Amino acid sequence: MHTLPIAGASLTLTTAVGHRSLLAASDGVSARLDELHFTLGEGPAVDAVSRGHPVLTSDLAEPGTAGRWPAFSGAAIEAGAGALFALPLQIGAVCLGVLVGYRVEPGRLSADDLAQALRLADGAADALLNLAVPASDLTEPDGDGDGATHDNHRTYSFGAEVHQASGMLMVQLGVSIEVALARLRAYAFAQGRPVSEIAREVVAGTLLLERQ
Amino acid sequence: MSDVNTSRELRLGRMFVRLADSLVTGFDVVEMLDALVSSCVDLLDAGAAGLMLTDQRGQLRVMAASSEQTRLMELFELQYDQGPCVDCYRSGQPLRADSDAEQAERWPLFAREVRSRGFGPLYALPLRLRENTIGALNIFQLPGEQLPEGDLQIAQALADVATIAILQHRTIHAGEQLAEQLQTALNSRVTIEQAKGVLAEFAHVDMARAFEMLRHYSRNTQSRLSEVATAIASGTLPPETVTATG
Description:
The complex is a heterodimer. By secondary structure, chain A is of the alpha+beta class. Chain A has helices at 28-40, 44-51, 63-68, 70-79, 111-130, 160-173, 177-191, 195-204; strands at residues 8-16, 19-25, 55-57, 83-91, 94-103.
């Protein structure tokens, strides 16, 4: 297990535009950084969410950084952060939240660090998707449940048909894209089958999920 | 010079102009990569072409394929974790495997898929800028049809311009913008698939037709494909607006 060279991290939900809530913070500095993003309305996490890509700021004191977020960068340094890395929990058009890690001293993430951080963000996105469906949908199927390995439910590794099926379910069920994806995953989980298999059936029109 | 060659030069010129244009005007990565693989097939008389990008998590992702058949080939390559794209990405060097025997020795499982789908010589060219290799372009030829060296250089040049277009910052420092650009590109691919699903279900058409509708609408409104896709998948652009004009 690769440990990230960061001092602390936080996870914030962004369920709708302008609506956000801090889900977890490992320490006071992380909580303070989250609050600063919220009150100032700017910073790496705000950009990560609006642009849908990671915003890696290896040195908050760098002039370019200060110019980008004039209020945030100084306040973040004062709060005790030297570097800040914001990764959106993004699945296509959906942003579920943002994972933010900070370092006391400026410094970049290595390629291995970045890979690990991206995998953590993927894991967090998976966990958040499970919140979008009723717990009953996530009950383990009868039998050994071997049909659905953990990997089959990793959102990031999904192929094109899973995303196509989500889009179709959005129309069929009259729900948002994130709920559509959550329903698809939950159904596969309950059936003990890989999500990709269920998705192919949805795309082929041989499987219809019921409206809730 | 024959008409065929003249028109090929014209098309090649247009492709480079289009790629170069994307450097200055802002562009849609998915659309550009789609154009790149179809240009490879068209300009080089290649059997098929596919392109993968790194997801920066230790995996490659299929970003573009000239046909559904090719997309499957690329997926096999990822599933078996062997094949020209995988090796080319890891080494950062171009590679070719002309003969069946050579392919079978290097990639036993993948070579079988190549054979059963009627392809012959394989080529892979890196998408590389200095020390960063971000993916690879695969070219599949029909049996007995080797690509001339000159054509490989054209393909590498296309791959190079595409790489620069993806990593559109003047100074890529230490993977920060690289991560932004690559993750954006990977995510655009996902968004487009979501939007295709919405349109397909809404208009009762297949995914290929849904993609045409998406492309048609974005061209008509002069917007980026990925922006239109985002609007559809996030529910801010009603599907009927898009399907009505498609």
